[in-house]
């Protein structure tokens, strides 16, 4: 194991801190356009979560808050939490600029309970590209159970781990070990939002959690899984073999065998 994996939190935070302002200015995130539409959520997320009017919603690993503010625009009493000071600062400013009622808390996700003392929520939400930064899913699920009010639910939308087992060019050949969850050295110069951006903090540590690991962690925390949905589309060029459709949705070519690219879970705390 590379000695850098023990510094996963330090390396990952340095990378995210550096990239916040790159992302704010990128066409990928289109902050100006977001100010007009105030909605960065996927259609199935909105349908599966349902009406959030008046609900207390916590968004874990919120980055600079687009999704948090999208829930706020839909009527939620939203709180976003992230470990990056520049991200929380940017999110707070964006909320003020758009006059949206949301607040943001600076804390590592594993410190969320102590960062929100005595607070519980109707909904805990976590979106795409979050779980791969976490080494300990049972601990993550347990803190979510503690943060949920009785009868509240976790809603998770993520990239499907099976899609990363296959080769990038064709998406038909198994090239990676599904059962090797990591840690993995990752990263590189630039960012998914701007490949040409000049960056210094280019080493990150990630995990590729099996779907069974995610489901088992959630169930093990005492949450009752209401559904697990697997989707045949995604929201970036996850494999070179995918084809772009309207609204930046990527799908398998027509007539080609399909496999899941994303998934979503809703799990409720009894009570």
Mind explaining what this structure looks like?
The chain is of the alpha/beta class. It has a single domain (3-268), classed as Vaccinia Virus protein VP39 (Rossmann fold). 29% of the residues lie in helices and 24% in strands. It is built from eight helices and twelve strands. It has a seven-stranded mixed sheet with strand order 3-2-1-4-5-12-8, sandwiched between helices. It has a three-stranded antiparallel sheet with strand order 9-11-10, with no helix packed on it. Helix 5 links the parallel strand 2 (77-82) and strand 3. Helix 1 runs parallel beside helix 5 and helix 7 (137-147) packs across helix 8 (211-220). The longest helix is centred in the N-terminal third of the chain and has 17 residues, at 8-24. It is globular, with a radius of gyration of 18 Å. The model has no long low-confidence stretch (mean pLDDT 95). InterPro entries: Methyltransf_12, SAM-dependent_MTases_sf. Keywords: Methyltransferase, Transferase. GO terms for molecular function: methyltransferase activity. Pfam families: Methyltransf_12 (PF08242). Residues 58-154 form the Methyltransferase type domain.
């Amino acid at each position: 194991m590379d000695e850098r994996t023990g510094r996963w939190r330090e390396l990952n935070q340095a990378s995210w801190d550096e990239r916040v302002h790159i992302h704010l200015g990128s066409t990928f995130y289109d902050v100006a356009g977001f100010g007009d539409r105030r909605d960065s959520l996927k259609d199935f997320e909105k349908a599966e979560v349902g009406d959030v009017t008046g609900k207390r919603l916590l968004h874990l690993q919120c980055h600079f808050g687009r999704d948090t503010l999208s829930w706020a625009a839909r009527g939620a009493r939203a709180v976003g939490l992230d470990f990056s000071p520049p991200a929380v600062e940017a999110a707070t400013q964006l909320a003020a600029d758009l006059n949206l009622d949301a607040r943001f808390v600076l804390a590592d996700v594993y410190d969320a309970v102590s960062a929100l003392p005595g607070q519980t929520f109707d909904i805990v939400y976590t979106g795409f590209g979050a779980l791969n930064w976490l080494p300990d899913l049972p601990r993550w699920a347990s803190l979510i159970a503690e943060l949920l009010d009785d009868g509240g639910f976790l809603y998770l939308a993520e990239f499907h781990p099976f899609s990363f087992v296959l080769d990038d060019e064709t998406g038909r050949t198994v090239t990676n070990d599904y059962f090797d969850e990591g840690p993995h050295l990752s990263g590189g110069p630039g960012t998914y939002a701007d490949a040409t951006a000049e960056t210094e903090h280019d080493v990150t540590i990630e995990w590729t959690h099996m779907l069974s690991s995610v489901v088992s962690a959630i169930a093990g925390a005492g949450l009752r899984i209401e559904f697990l949905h697997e989707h045949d589309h995604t929201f970036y060029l996850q494999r070179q073999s995918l084809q772009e459709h309207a609204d930046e949705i990527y799908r398998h070519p027509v007539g080609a065998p399909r496999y899941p690219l994303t998934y979503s879970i809703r799990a409720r705390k009894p009570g």
